[in-house]
């Protein structure tokens, strides 16, 4: 199992880095769209959509995504006005307000239309964040993704070594408060290293703490959906790793939140211009 995981990672990591730094727009957008559509397919499967509904759901999402990728790139006024000004704030509201309630109550949503909306609300802002953050800087996107990956690894090892107090035993029994603390400590070290190396404001570390908390929320939400549907993994596309959502669950929350915070000056500017 470990060997399979390592082989898969050895293939995916160089391929992703090559795409991140070498692919021009809109091909990066299309590649990331393909990835999130697979994740959306996995979501529809875990939510119990019938095959015909699943195909229709993904087809409609793909058509809209391809349209945006080809005709409205991240620098386009349409993308900025509708996707950035509405998509990211709505995603932020979802993760700040609705998801904590969802996790606290462990609600099993039976309504297919609500689950469709939830799937779009979870997966599509990830694509928007991947496109908009990469447009700002590939290094910026990579550094934010590293926060999530470092936090995930640190939480795993800290939880294995020191874990005693369960974080959410009815959702993900393996997660512990000690794991959360371990993640926060290690991302603090990562943030401190970046602050020293690039002379950045120390508040960056606080931002990394916030992203770590949101990444845990994304992980817990996917775990809840899998648990309610009786699934071990979201899929089997990645040998040794499960599905796409199993690898990006923490990113579904943290990347849109990072993009939202980084675009706050744009929102403020737009609000100032729209105010009489």
Task: Summarize the entry for a quick read.
The chain has 10 helices and 2 strands.
Dominant shape? globular
Give the rounded overall mean pLDDT: 89
Structural class by helix and strand composition: mainly alpha
Q: Report the uncertain regions.
A: none
H/I helix tally: 10
What profile does the largest beta sheet have?
2 strands, antiparallel
State the share of residues found in helices, binned by percent. Answer: over 70%
Number of strands: 2
The radius of gyration is: 18 Å
- State the end-to-end CA separation: 62 Å
- Helix and strand succession? HHHHHHEEHHHH
- Largest sheet, order of strands side by side? 1-2
Whole-number total of structural domains: 1
Percentage of residues in DSSP E strands: under 5%
Enzyme class: transferase
Pathway: Phospholipid metabolism; CDP-diacylglycerol biosynthesis; CDP-diacylglycerol from sn-glycerol 3-phosphate: step 3/3; Lipid metabolism
Catalytic activity: a 1,2-diacyl-sn-glycero-3-phosphate + CTP + H(+) = a CDP-1,2-diacyl-sn-glycerol + diphosphate
Keywords: Cell membrane, Lipid biosynthesis, Lipid metabolism, Membrane, Nucleotidyltransferase, Phospholipid biosynthesis, Phospholipid metabolism, Transferase, Transmembrane, Transmembrane helix
Description:
- With 276 residues, the chain is mainly α.
- It has one domain.
- It has 10 helices and 2 strands.
- A two-stranded antiparallel sheet has the order 1-2.
- α2 runs antiparallel to α3, α4 packs across α5 and α7 packs antiparallel against α8.
């Amino acid at each position: 199992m470990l060997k399979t995981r390592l082989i898969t990672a050895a293939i995916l990591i160089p391929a992703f880095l090559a795409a991140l730094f070498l692919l021009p727009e809109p091909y990066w957008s299309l590649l990331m769209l393909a990835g999130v559509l697979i994740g959306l397919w996995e979501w529809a499967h875990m939510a119990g959509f019938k095959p015909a509904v699943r195909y229709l759901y993904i087809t409609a999402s793909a058509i809209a995504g391809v349209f945006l990728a080809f005709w409205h790139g991240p620098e386009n006024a349409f993308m900025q006005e509708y996707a950035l000004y509405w998509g990211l704030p709505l995603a932020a509201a979802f993760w700040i307000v609705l998801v904590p309630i969802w996790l606290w109550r462990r609600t099993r949503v039976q309504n297919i239309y609500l689950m469709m909306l939830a799937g779009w609300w979870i997966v599509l802002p990830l694509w928007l964040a991947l496109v908009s953050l990469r447009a700002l800087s590939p290094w910026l996107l990579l550094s934010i993704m590293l926060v999530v990956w470092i936090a995930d690894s640190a939480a795993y090892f800290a939880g294995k070594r020191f874990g005693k107090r369960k974080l959410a035993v009815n959702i993900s029994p393996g997660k512990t408060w000690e794991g959360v603390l371990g993640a926060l400590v290690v991302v603090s070290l990562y943030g401190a290293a970046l602050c020293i190396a690039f002379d950045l404001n120390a508040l960056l570390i606080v931002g990394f703490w916030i992203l770590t908390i949101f990444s845990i929320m994304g992980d817990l939400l996917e775990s809840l959906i899998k648990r309610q549907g009786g699934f071990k993994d979201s899929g089997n596309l990645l040998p040794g790793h499960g599905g796409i959502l199993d690898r990006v669950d923490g990113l579904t929350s943290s990347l849109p939140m990072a993009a939202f915070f980084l675009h706050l000056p744009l929102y403020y500017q737009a609000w100032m211009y729209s105010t009489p």
